[in-house]
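note to self — DONT lose this again. spent like an hour looking for the file last time. sequence + predicted structure for the chain T wanted, 96 res
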Amino acid sequence: MVRAAGPPVGLRRRRPPVTADSFASPLHDRRTAALLGIALGAAFGICFLTGLLSHLIQQPPSWFTWPARPAWLYRITQGLHVATGIATIPLLLGKL
């Protein structure tokens, strides 16, 4: 039987416990996490509201009317929906 190189099991050095100083990178700062959370919340909120608006425009209830003019207003809401939806992916990955 071949033994692995290194000290015997009882004499191995133990790792110190993980502390707050273990992640000293500025990327793990509380401020960075808070700013990413705010940006993620805002992007998700805008994406949700513009998606809800788009649903109301396509399937309008009796109390909701959407103006036909200006046509660029619908384009802006759809552009915001797509842009914020795509922006949530890297924001979420950065937050994780």
